[in-house]
Amino acid sequence: MNLRDHQSGIFTKQFGYKSFSPNSINFEWNINSPEINTLLEDANLHLGELNAFSSFVPDVNVFIRMHIVKEATQSSRIEGTRTRMDEAVLEAKDISPESKDDWQEVQNYIEAINFSIDQLEKLPLSSRLIKDAHKILLKGVRGKNKLPGEFRSSQNWIGGASINDASFIPPHFSQVDECISDLEKFLNNDQIKVPHLIRIGIAHYQFEAIHPFLDGNGRIGRLLVTLYLINQKVLTKPTLYLSDFIEKHRSIYYDNLMGVSIHNNLEQWLKFFLVGIIETAKNAILTFTKIIALRDQVEKDTIMSLGKKLPNARALLQFLYSKPVITVSDVIEVLNTSKQSANALIKDFCNLGILTEQTGYKRNRIFTFTEYLKLFQE
Asked: How far, in whole angstroms, is CA 325 from its chain's centroid?
């Protein structure tokens, strides 16, 4: 199938409205666009460079944890939550009651990401895995009554106060299983030759067009991209997440998705998608570069003045890379030390400019590794 010849689907008359019925995507695709081929080459080059970083950076999994926190925060922000990264790494007891619901949605997404990546070692990228991730995503939060872990059994819509003024109505729920089956086959079909980034770009559009869940489709659809790239060994580590790029270009993202359904403009969507891969990979590479520079500065220079406290200082730094917002009780637990020693070490870190106290309180204080956290917020 040539990209320019593909008809994305038809609008099917239902009772009082027309829903979109997507056509099959499970076949070989021909790409005759010089612009797409050029972007595809650039995207693969940058993913290769990103993979190189994840291969030689010591303790890379520690830093990847923060990438996952960033993805969960940004992906949830697209859906309306307002949790910041510095809040996302705190424990439940340190979150204000008015922020707890949004915080929990981010925690669920972090859990869903980690669960899904682990499951890829046992399961193919399948509807079962997607449903399991969705169940975790909606556990105990706003969507808990919207069939967590199950495809919808009623009609949903996008935009508008009701189905009568919706900007887009996905397929009737009776078509969801068939549509997802086609998508699942396409993702795992090794009998067809389709470049990985083209395949997952088409698959992401198709998933969002199907909108198989009553809630959480955006987050699961974005997670699908990373899971596919890991599953196909395009990424050796989960270092690339598109939500930050999508959040910054949200209206263009939705316009391009809609352009496929309404105008069959799959080429334009794939151009946007590949630019997103390129920009996200570049930003991830830059972040890793800055992490290495900051780590070298702090570990080889800043903390060297701490003398006999150096072993504990190094242990605390290692902890801060995965949890850059801490309390005194965190330090007591991680270092298995006394409250007095924990307070003394935190004071040293503050004096050295590594940690900054955020609350201004004398009790229940919260300390942030500000320079490190900023690298994920730029």
From this structure: 20
Assigned domain for 84 exists: yes
pLDDT tens column, 52-77: 887 777 677 878 888 888 888 888 88
Q: Are residues 205 and 327 in the same domain?
A: no
The DSSP string of 116-134 is HHHHTTTS-S-HHHHHHHH
Kindly give the residue spans of alpha helices, DSSP state H, lying in the chain: 34-56, 60-78, 85-88, 100-119, 127-137, 176-188, 196-210, 217-231, 243-248, 250-263, 266-300, 310-322, 328-335, 339-351, 370-375
Q: Are residues 110 and 37 in the same domain?
A: yes
Element (H, E) at 9: strand 9-13
Q: Distance of CA 120 to CAs 18, 91, 157, Å?
A: 37, 28, 31
Backbone angles phi, psi at 344, to 5 degrees: -65, -40
Q: Which of 150, 69, 67 is nearest to 109 (CA)?
A: 69
- DSSP annotation of 302 reads G
Give me the residue label for tokens 């010089």. Answer: 34
Do residues 171 and 180 lie in contact, with contact meaning Cβ atoms separated by under 8 Å?
A: no
Q: What is the pLDDT of residues 121-167, one digit of tens each?
A: 998 999 999 999 999 999 998 888 899 999 999 999 998 889 999 99
Backbone angles phi, psi at 229, to 5 degrees: -65, -35
Spatial neighbors of 351 by CB under 8 A, at least 6 apart, are none
CA 363-106-254 angle, to 5 degrees, is 140
CA nearest neighbour of 12 among 178, 174, 185: 174
Do the domain assignments include residue 296?
Answer: no
Whether pTM > 0.85 for this model: the answer is yes
Residue 10 lies in domain: 3-288
